[in-house]
């Protein structure tokens, strides 16, 4: 990293503040000059030092990227609350009912080349750019991993440009290490990790299984007949990996036959016991949810209908998607905080953006770009930005409540803030390459991620965060 020198450091001042008289054999009168102007120089020096003390060093580095969480994960609640400039665009007051906030203390930092060298400046893992890396990427293919879901098997369905597999995430101030499956399994020996959420969470679960496939496949120890709820064990390491299907994270109920198209009943203040009853003794859980909250729904709180999303009933209040989204996360975080025996870490994997162009998913929209955006080329905006900031607001509340529960000593929440990173990857979706050519009635998928693909990097970062936890 470039070393910055301030003008103060270059002034000829010793530790006692005395001016070093410059001796020169050919110009003896320089000594007299130095003595003559000594009072003025001392006065200037005094003014500069006073200005620095009162206003902060004017010569400090212009790098404003802060270090966020310390390795112990405790956030600084006094940090200013701002959205990273690289992820935001101006939003009119009418576009969001809430202010967009990200506490600097929520983010995770890592030393430039080591998680253990405390003398090195830390860096933000989530702010960076995608760099071409043909040597190390991809980690796997559909020939080396059998866990790839058909809908993300872009290589099988002949996505024409496979360059999307050859990019790696490069944080601005450090290197993100290549994923080492043996090291990962050793790190999590005797531990348990669960993904909880929707099909993008399942996408990340499958990515992790593929990343670990070089070591071996786990044994299926699933207890549920639901194929979307899984429990697998890497027996040689006694590591348990689970997947809980809960696209709304809270209690839901069908409003008529499942194929009727009727809005689902969402009980925004009630736990989804399918996962809340199972995770109390897990070491790590990853919560995520997103695009299901754009579907028609009837919202219930305290057992009463309070409103809806995209319904035809004029007698109930109509809400924006962020209403149900925020309350569902508030309830799921409350569920975690209510578990007396939960001593693990709960990660929030932030909103995974879609990249439809030319229409929405059911209007012929598609995602045909073949390379990542540059970090300064585009900004998160509109509904994606509102969903993202809604998550962060509820996360911050949960973190405060968790610290209160733990007497201010232990923080059980971490932010896996991958939204910006994934926003820069419009090329990484299946598009139409998730089914056989010519099949009718199929939409273009610009929500999920090809495997291998950008979501593998979410697990790269998760791995680094787990290293910090163990340190």
TrEMBL record:
Residues 121-175 form the Trichome birefringence-like N-terminal domain. Residues 176-465 form the Trichome birefringence-like C-terminal domain. It is a single-pass membrane protein. InterPro entries: TBL, TBL_C, TBL_N. The chain crosses the membrane at residues 34-54. GO terms for molecular function: O-acetyltransferase activity. The keyword Transmembrane helix applies. Belongs to the PC-esterase family. TBL subfamily. This is Uncharacterized protein. It comes from Papaver somniferum.
């Amino acid at each position: 990293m470039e070393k910055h020198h301030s003008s103060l450091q270059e002034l000829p001042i010793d530790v006692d503040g005395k001016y070093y008289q410059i001796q020169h054999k050919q110009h003896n009168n320089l000594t007299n000059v130095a003595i003559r102007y000594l009072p003025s120089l001392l006065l200037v020096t005094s003014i500069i030092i006073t200005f620095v003390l009162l206003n902060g060093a004017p010569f400090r580095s212009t790098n404003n990227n802060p270090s966020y969480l310390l390795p112990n994960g405790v956030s600084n609640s006094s940090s200013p609350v701002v959205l990273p400039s690289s992820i935001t665009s101006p939003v009119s007051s009418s576009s969001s009912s809430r202010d967009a906030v990200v506490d600097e203390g929520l983010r995770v930092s890592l030393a430039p080349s080591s998680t253990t060298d405390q003398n090195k400046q830390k860096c933000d893992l989530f702010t960076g750019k995608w760099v071409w890396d043909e040597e190390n990427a991809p980690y796997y293919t559909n020939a080396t991993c059998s866990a790839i879901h058909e809908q993300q098997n872009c290589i099988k369905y002949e996505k024409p440009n496979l360059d999307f597999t050859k990019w790696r995430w490069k944080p601005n101030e450090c290197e993100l290490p290549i994923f080492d499956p043996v090291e990962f399994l050793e790190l999590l020996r005797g531990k348990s990790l669960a993904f909880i959420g929707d099909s993008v969470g399942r996408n990340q679960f499958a990515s992790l299984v593929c990343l670990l496939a070089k070591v071996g496949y786990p044994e299926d120890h699933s207890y549920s007949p639901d194929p979307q709820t899984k429990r697998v064990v890497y027996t040689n390491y006694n590591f348990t990996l689970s997947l809980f299907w809960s696209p709304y994270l809270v209690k839901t109920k069908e409003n008529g036959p499942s194929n009727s198209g009727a809005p689902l009943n969402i009980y925004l203040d009630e736990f989804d016991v399918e996962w809340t009853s199972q995770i109390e003794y897990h070491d790590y859980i990853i919560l995520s949810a997103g695009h299901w909250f754009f579907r028609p729904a009837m919202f219930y709180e305290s057992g009463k209908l309070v409103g809806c999303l995209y319904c035809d009933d004029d007698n109930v209040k109509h809400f924006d998607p962020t209403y149900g989204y925020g309350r569902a996360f508030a309830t799921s975080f409350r569920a975690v905080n209510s578990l007396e025996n939960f001593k693990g870490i709960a990660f929030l994997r932030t909103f995974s953006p879609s990249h439809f162009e030319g229409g929405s998913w059911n209007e012929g929209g598609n995602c045909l770009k073949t390379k990542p955006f540059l970090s300064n080329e585009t900004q998160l905006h509109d509904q994606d930005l509102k969903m993202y900031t809604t998550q962060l607001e509820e996360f911050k509340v949960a973190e405060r409540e968790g610290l209160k529960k733990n007497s201010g000593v232990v923080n059980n929440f971490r932010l896996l803030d991958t939204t910006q990173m994934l926003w820069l990857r419009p090329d990484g979706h299946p598009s139409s390459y998730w089914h056989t050519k010519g099949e009718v009635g199929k939409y273009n998928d610009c929500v999920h991620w090809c495997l291998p693909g950008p979501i593998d990097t979410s697990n790269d970062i998760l791995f680094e965060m787990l290293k910090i936890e163990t340190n």
